[in-house]
């Protein structure tokens, strides 16, 4: 793959530790997790870090919160139903598409979410794109998108596989300077810029003059890169001859600390989480989570009877 080698983000590593405890029976279906202070002590992590991982586990359907009881392990993931195959930056842009700012383009191992929805085997390598959607200088949404393993895409949708590689080659891949892990601020993110050294950081690219992004060459010249795009827009552009199907879900949640920093909102800001699974026939080729905080542009939902 033409992007940086994968390293697990700390929240993903912690997520997996708890998910593994669920799967190996330490916390069986229907059981209640220890309190946050006790669980944080058992895992040797801070409560804020634990809360981030627990929030992701709730969003992915492994855990539920019951008033007066605490967090319990679900018997099975919940069913979800919302459909709209259109890039989020266009869907909520009210006629003026939002700008996509690439925060991270890298490779990740599967989590329970991607294992379940992308049929990814343990140890698989999945392309992971983290993007900030902005309009008029304001962060409107945060998108996490994963593609199915290259081996599968090459079989069921080779055009998408080629388009992804071309998009990453054009944008440079790796981490940008736009996330808190990369050492910059969310508002300063640019596709293909970088040098970030935080968790999950890949090898970045330099920034050219005039605000354009580019990779430095041996003779000092700069190679320009295409503006960042969402993975879903790449998929749709590569699917003119391929029929797609999708199902999505809408869930109320909170931003949490890291996503709050990226969106410049408090950690306890209410938000809408939209999950989306896109398929070719019966085969899932892409999965996404889109986080829309309070005050984000309206998300239109088409319903019919």
Summarize the structure.
The chain is an alpha+beta fold and 305 residues long. Helices cover 27% and strands 26% of the residues.
Percent range for β-strand residues: 25-35%
The chain-level structural class is: alpha+beta
Shape: globular
The helicity comes to 25-40%
As laid out across the biggest beta sheet, the strand order is 6-3-4-5-11-10-9
Q: State mean pLDDT (0 to 100 scale).
A: 77
Q: Helix and strand string, N-terminal first? A: HHHEEHEHEEHHEEEHEHEE
- Straight-line distance between termini: 44 Å
- The parts where pLDDT drops under 50 for at least 5 residues are 78-84, 175-223
Radius of gyration, in Å, reads 19 Å
Counting H and I runs of at least 4 residues, what is the number of helices? Answer: 9
Characterize the main sheet. Answer: 7 strands, antiparallel
State the total count of DSSP E strands: 11
Write structural notes for this entry.
The chain is built from 9 helices and 11 strands. By secondary structure, the chain is of the alpha+beta class. α1 crosses α3 and α7 packs across α8.
Q: Mind sketching the topology for me?
A:
Blueprint: H1 10-23, H2 36-43, H3 47-59, E1 63-66, E2 70-73, H4 88-91, E3 99-108, H5 112-118, E4 126-135, E5 138-147, H6 150-156, H7 158-171, E6 174-175, E7 214-216, E8 222-224, H8 231-237, E9 245-254, H9 257-263, E10 270-280, E11 283-293
Antiparallel strand pairs: 1-2, 3-4, 3-6, 4-5, 5-11, 7-8, 9-10, 10-11
